[in-house]
Design a protein that fits this description.
alpha/beta, nine-stranded mixed beta sheet, 10 helices, 9 strands, 15% strand
Length: 335
Amino acid sequence: MFRNRCAPRYGHFPGRSSSAGFRTPSPGPRMIVPRIAIVRSLSTVRPLEGFRTIGTGIYLRDTHEQCQDTKSPNVVLIFGWLGAYPRQLRNYTNAYAKLYPKASQIVVQCNRDLLWTTSSARSRRLKPVIDALEVLHCLPSSSSAQRPARILTHVFSNGGSLQMTLLGHMLQRKYGSTPVLGSSASALILDSCPAAGDLKSIKLAVRTVIRNPIARRIVLAIVHTIYSIRFGLSLLFGKQMIMLENLQIEMWNPCILPWMGLHTPRLYLFSRKDKLISWQEVTQHAETAKERGMDVRCELFEESAHVAHLQAEPERYWSSVQEIWAVATKEKSEH
């Protein structure tokens, strides 16, 4: 369901009919070795307050309480955008702590080295997320009894989407394709994603997250080379070889994480003024998901920048989050 702030509840996208309505109601010092400088700066970032660090860029807030309120999630899983610092993610973790005080939270940063880190190295970094989900009784483990979990997953930008899809592959390898939490409630929130973009938007993203000019030039050269190679292979073999195009395809999987399915409502949060992610691409992705049987809702903002919708309209933002979770619990109770 797409909703527009200024339009009736079931509106239309400008110039085309829609399958659903929508609502829009200082850089650090230069370093001689840039890559070492980036890694060093990441290692000195202060962790989230109230959380404990369980891995590189992974934080856990365990309430040590079994939430009896079936209308609230008992776990909130957050995947940050590329280059997001804990202090930026704190705006979301603090709000979730107020909305759902008995819910544990897992926060996964998306460090800048995602641009050159191998998939196997990223998988090793994400392993603590699986360990935490097992400890919180969200996944089967030999040391604890699994109980029905209610998981709200909040993903930011393509960087967070890449982390989430990789976690999904890891869980599939460990538990197989059968859903491990068939009786749980779940919701998926997609903030400023997904979109394939083009080389221009990818280079703009690199310039945004990497401030060191020397490091930026090196990374841009690497990105340009990789993109050119993958694009050439796509033309040669007729397959999708560009990473972000593959990401879009993977994000259409209703069971992208093992506790999700067609019953999992999706909320897309995006803006016309986003310079990194095209709102038209997000719209197309949402409509295709709707056509494939998924429960889709969208919030199209008018003025906010990339991953800045909360700052522009906080009340609307959190109202949308609460509404999508209410839908998740209602749909689960009806099944």
